[in-house]
Model the fold of this input.
Amino acid sequence: MNFRKRTAHCGELRPSDAGRTVVLNGWVNARRDYGSIVFIDLRDREGVTQVVLDATDNPELAANLKDVRSEWVLWVEGAVRMRENPNPKIPTGLVEIVVRDAGVINRSEVPPFEIVDDLQTNEELRLQYRYLDLRRPTIQQKLLMRSRLASVTREYFSAEGFAEVETPVLTRSTPEGARDYLVPSRVNKGRFYALPQSPQLFKQLLMVSGFDRYMQIVKVFRDEDLRADRQPEFTQIDIEMSFVEQSDIMAMTERYVQHVWKRLLDIDLDLGFRQVTFADAMNTYGSDKPDLRYGLPIVDVTDYAASSSFVVFKSAADAGHVVKALRIPDAASFSRKQIDELTDLAKTHGAGGLPYLKLVQGEVSGSFSKNLPPDEATTLLSACSAADGDLVLFAVGEWERACTILGALRIEAARRLDLVSKTTTPYSMLWITEFPLLEHDPEEQRWVARHHPFTSPMTEDLHLLESNPGAIRARAYDLVMNGYEAAGGSVRIHDSTVQQRMFDLIGMSVEEANAKFGFLLKALKYGAPPHGGIAFGFDRLAMVLAGTNNIRDVIAFPKTTSGLSLMDGCPSDVDDKQLAELGIALRQ
Amino acid sequence: MNFRKRTAHCGELRPSDAGRTVVLNGWVNARRDYGSIVFIDLRDREGVTQVVLDATDNPELAANLKDVRSEWVLWVEGAVRMRENPNPKIPTGLVEIVVRDAGVINRSEVPPFEIVDDLQTNEELRLQYRYLDLRRPTIQQKLLMRSRLASVTREYFSAEGFAEVETPVLTRSTPEGARDYLVPSRVNKGRFYALPQSPQLFKQLLMVSGFDRYMQIVKVFRDEDLRADRQPEFTQIDIEMSFVEQSDIMAMTERYVQHVWKRLLDIDLDLGFRQVTFADAMNTYGSDKPDLRYGLPIVDVTDYAASSSFVVFKSAADAGHVVKALRIPDAASFSRKQIDELTDLAKTHGAGGLPYLKLVQGEVSGSFSKNLPPDEATTLLSACSAADGDLVLFAVGEWERACTILGALRIEAARRLDLVSKTTTPYSMLWITEFPLLEHDPEEQRWVARHHPFTSPMTEDLHLLESNPGAIRARAYDLVMNGYEAAGGSVRIHDSTVQQRMFDLIGMSVEEANAKFGFLLKALKYGAPPHGGIAFGFDRLAMVLAGTNNIRDVIAFPKTTSGLSLMDGCPSDVDDKQLAELGIALRQ
Done:
């Protein structure tokens, strides 16, 4: 041992400790040399403490420590005393340590960037030296918050009687939905495991087994083309319950969220989160995960459009399409350029263009104001509750598309008007319910499950199974927080006949269903209990709680959007010998 | 909803509940039909409750339930009353429910085997219908015990200031030790991720980052040829600490084990587990994971052998080899066949044969008694402390091999003499310390790390690095429970120069070291703290606590020794389309 072990952390000393002799171990956060007096800020996970070395009293020690620079590791022994110049910004800022003895535990080269919270370095360099990036208190605090989140999550579910059961990582590939990551088997050459996209089937089987209440914080994998907020591997809080209906699962979930907010943020949330159906959410907010920290509701003006002189509106209404409007208060001042940007955004969501109207000092202007008689314009604007100074955007077309266009514009408008920072509800919790069970895949010309094919239809819609599948609503629900889909779940099918009908509906033959999910169909025949569950995106939840918009801030060793780990350089080439053992080869 | 939700579990009702009306939900465990009276044992996770249906009082209900058979799912409403014929074997055995109303929630086909604890069905069928196998209370209890183990583990480490940090599952392949499972990357074709064999490097990097105390319960993967007690994926309790030495980590570990035994078994373990060096363990027990629930020590008789008339002994001693003896009390009665079996076992561990002596009523017999003058035989047997009726087995040869042979015979002897069931110490906890840092790989003609190449040498042996690498002891330690290696750990190298010397020593060039572990070598240059840790085999620990010898009893969805999941049929064939997307093909 070349160091003396700490007797205190760098974050704990207070005036009441004055006079105590302590040993600290930590990293040099900063060093200020005034010749005869040297100040060192020593840092560990818990905080920073100022250390003072008086070279006059202790010339030998001062000489030994003269090379010490940032990020060196030291042990320091000395007495706690009150500071002459207190630093009110840090919890230990009233005291300092007068060094009696000290030593270097390890040296550090000059790091490629400073270990400070407000680092401006590009993210690539930070990820390459992730172990140094993780020294920054702001990142460390977020990861410690994530650790506490895991803790209070398990504490809650354990107290509620949920058993933690581990499900396999090496599973069967069931190509349905996103792409699987495959793992070649060496022992069974030519065959492959798949990394799970979710433990869905296993948790349902645990219910069939009578485990009653299951939870797991578990890694899942999707080989999708990555977007900024996606990672190839991510973490899920996975929940399943037996002998329950939808309202039980939702109530259990709300109590969990309440527990987390209380324990981690000391915020009291009211139970009975608002519930909005999928149809209402699309109609009013143009999204199935609307951010309700602000308003900006969408209004339907199709009725008006049916008798409009504006041919674009009229023909849309005649064709059975819809016309929707989004009023943006005080946005009539948006410039031509700003409107063009909004138009481009609308087009990325499938709009042909972006009809708009402005009302300024009683004057109506806009992209189609000349196509409207003045009284019609007034009627239309008043249907949109437009006031002087407002901008009104319109979307025309097929219902879901028109809603989605205005949904995207609603978010952009809120960003421009900075509505989130002006909100009085910092956390918007919202259930979306009554999702469609199916959606039509135009490419494959068949129905596909919107959630997954084990989701139970709503009992009152069962009669539509053959006649109008697109209208069947599912017993599925999403929990939306501040515009993020924080969790999603459903009541599952527990009847093997209904499950087989569901497979039929999505065009899966009996043979195919048996090959892929035979074990589930079989399991449902041996006394499956009614069951359902929910899964939280753990990384997203940690993000919301840590107040960051960057998912990589709450993942210790994240990958880039191309799935690379810049620190260890994976994925990497491997020896052909390894591939030969696995019975595979690279394609030419 | 086609059922009434439970107001009580099937395990909670007691005489004090008599008179209460309750609803139970559960599975039919057994049904006994006496015509006018039907008894149904209803089962859920918490237990079994007897339900009585009187067909005379309730003819319509009786008719509705007349088809009910084992494993059907029912809801039952009725009053609790005292039983006329109590069943003292179950906690609810004093009461029963008199059915007022009830219904079938789901039916069950006749299961392929009975849901009973003492099931004799072969394991293959059980694994195929794992969801039914998991209904058996004995398996369910073991998995619930495992869940509680996870809970108390996290509770302990969280209270001790350990942060839970998730490390990646998609990592870099570093072929050193066991084989990696590889995962082809679609986005970066021709390159591969590897599933981690341990989060070793990541947890060390977290220490470099200042996380100070890390824990994780985490899946790890090794593509080894499987043995009966191995699984391709298994779970580890992974621990790492900064600013500590070996004794701190061992003390922390002991307190954890004490906490677990108290909380799960209500057993008080004394701290200060026995510590035995690797050399002593091999010498005395012929194993680095000896089961000390029984004695049977090995003795060294090389000194005697040096002057023996038995040429096998003499020439071994002259060649610098050893002669070791294992006395088995009261085993002189072993038959010729039994001795032959022991000889075969010795041979599987590299013995040429199995020299032995018996002492019966003062008479010495055995495989080489005729080669020994009587006084020499007496001296030898007394050196082994042999008494009348004893059998003494000998191993001759290179030290580690001779020890290992007798170590295997020691375990077999204990099994035959049933020593474990006669023990007074049901849990033997033991540290093995001072492992050799390196071992010589005769195939590759080089030194390899015995533990892993990040293990710190003992400071007092550092001078042997170049002169006698085989004699260097490591700051490594294993925790052995009842003959299982429950945990293993080490103090790590935190100095980049020492780490580079270690890579040199195992014949890894600077280029190779940089290519594989460059990020670690680099990280050690930026102020790495002294650190070390330990990892528990979580499945093994659960096994010991659950009192089973079958690792599949504590894994919800285990694989067979050929890596198959018999339930879902993985690994499986995949479409060539999937392989093409990944840029790989099967080899011809």
